[in-house]
Amino acid sequence: MGEKARICLAFFVLSAFCLGGCSTIPHPPEPEPSAASEPPVSAPPALPPFALSFSKEDSLHPYKAQSRANLDLASLLYEGLTAVGGDYAVRLNLAASIDEGEPLRPVVAIRSDAHFSDGSPVTAADIAASFSAAKGTAAFGPLLTNITAAAAQGTDRVAFTLASPDPRWQACLSFPVVKQGAEDPPLGSGAYVYNAGDDTLTLRPGRGGTITSIRLRDFPDADAMLHGLENGSLTFFYSELSGGEIPRTSSATADVPLPDLLFLGVNARHDALKKTEVRAALSAALSREELVSGALSGRGAPALSPFPPQWAEAADIKVLGAAENIASAVAQLEQAGYNTTDSAAGLSLELLVTQGNPFRKNTADLVAQQMARAGIAVTVTELPFAEYENRLKKGQFDLYLGEVRLSADLHLRSFLTPGGAAAYGLAAESPAAGAYNAYLAGNGTLQGFCDAFAADLPYIPLCWRQGMAAFHRSLSGLIPHAYDVYSGFESWVFA
Model pTM? Predict the structure, then answer.
């Protein structure tokens, strides 16, 4: 047999063996799956540094700051004798106790463990000096109108002097307390300390909170802040939506109720408007629900009393209607001698509004439309602010659209005190003003005042505005409110 034939025979035999008996050839066992063979689990992306906005050109001194961002940061650096929550409840902060044995001269005792960031104690002299500084500012001055003086009694007690009784005066003690000295910004007793070298806030040792460091970043405007929120260079953004425009963002958002009241100012000296029936008709013709949905794009709440609905003491007091009541409005007008079906014999009024704010103009136009349903002809007149203000001061108006932010004590002095910022056209003998003074003095109830207000209507509440907080989706625990957007910051979690 030749070599070639032997090779072919060997190949044939081998092939036959494999085809016929391959199943008997043992195979090595398959390896057990191991962790190394599993697809790798990617780590979650690292969070950016926690960052808040501020104005580099503005001061962080609470009594020198002008920007909203810097004023908001004051609650992280400084504390007041008291603090006011989102429900307007007052709690003691630097104050250990308050003695109201003399109602118009209460005495506040300072906590013995209250210290500034350098370890020095918070003294009565520091508080008295802070009060004097706060009283001269636009941000805190309105809050302190009824407190005329603060005097140190030793090192740990301060005596305050009130001009008149006020059941919520303790809310006025929420002004920031700073250490006396030449530093700018001054030292505070808050949870954080400002580091000028790198524009950061650092959590003080022993203070609660999970956010130990905060980077402050300067943004030129709201658009830049929103962009920073989207790209991670800003963690939290707050807007009071004063221009009526709602920022668009893909971040998490939360509504922030504001003590900002949109209202109709009424000239009670006007031939028609001095009649309570006419003022009642104007209020009944309003759909406050429609104003919230139409003028405020849903960012607000109908004003059903003179006070914000979040205030627990007044939450159940609703003396005004949320929806329009045309039948009531017509009946009140007819009682006052006006024909709602004959324009010649009907009621015609002018409503003043400031130029340059489309949100205000839209609100005024909607009010006019609602009044027309009850047969009331309202002409909206836009004026430059100086002319608008001048006509109000001279009493040359029927109605005006205004907005007032109530201070933390929820005082209505701007509306019901002659010479108040929103008291244009207030009647000399306003029953509502009298009932309010009785309530303040302890001679009347809150419900009693609100009932008197609804019967008198020295001004006509429309709705309460809302602000908006936008924030990184990894941030939780937020409870912002108008007086402290960083409220409960020790409970915020960024993880």
Answer: 0.87
